[in-house]
Design brief:
The chain contains six helices and five strands. The chain is of the alpha/beta class. It has one domain: Rossmann fold (3-Layer(aba) Sandwich). Helix 5 links the parallel strand 4 and strand 5. It is globular, with a radius of gyration of 15 Å. The termini are close together.
Length: 171
């Protein structure tokens, strides 16, 4: 069973620090018995992120525009595939992650099954707090979407474990 994991990698002030956080979250997801669609957010350098991305989605075109189109299409394909859930780390603002989240919670409008979605936000990480577009997703409108604030990585492990227990009853 596969889970989609998404997070900002472009706008992070410190790619290495955020990569370590992404690695911890992905390790927790795997510990729960799931595979992860791609682990490119764990790349500590641009080159490492690209290598990890190619391991998951295939060799990318050399042309910059074609590469961007290819990656975007593969990420959307991943969200529209047979994943059982999606987990996003949303502490760092990201247009790309926002698009991925929208595709995940709009799956039923595309004739796909709804999946549980977890958006993790590190308390007080970003000076302007969490985006209104994320914070404004209500449980009434999207009952399978959960926004949970965390303080440290111990919190993250408990949050993810409870999320999967509540929504998927993993192995």
């Amino acid at each position: 069973m596969k889970v989609f994991y998404g997070a900002a990698i472009q706008g992070a002030e410190n790619r290495k620090k955020r990569a370590d956080i992404h690695q911890t979250i992905i390790d927790v997801i795997k510990k729960q018995g799931f595979d992860v669609y791609t682990e490119h957010t764990t790349g500590k350098t641009y080159k490492e992120a690209i290598e990890k991305l190619e391991q998951s989605i295939g060799v990318m075109p050399n042309d910059d525009l074609q590469r961007r189109i290819f990656v975007r299409n593969k990420m959307i394909e991943g969200i529209e595939s047979d994943i059982v859930a999606a987990v996003f780390e949303v502490s760092t603002p990201s247009l790309g992650t926002g698009i991925e989240i929208a595709h995940a919670y709009l799956r039923p409008r595309m004739g796909l099954s709804a999946i549980p979605i977890l958006a993790l936000y590190e308390k007080d990480f970003w000076p302007n707090k969490l985006s209104t577009m994320i914070r404004g997703i209500s449980a009434k409108e999207v009952p399978h979407f959960y926004i949970v604030e965390y303080v440290d990585m111990d919190d993250v492990e408990n949050i993810i474990s409870n999320f999967f227990k509540k929504n998927l009853n993993p192995i």
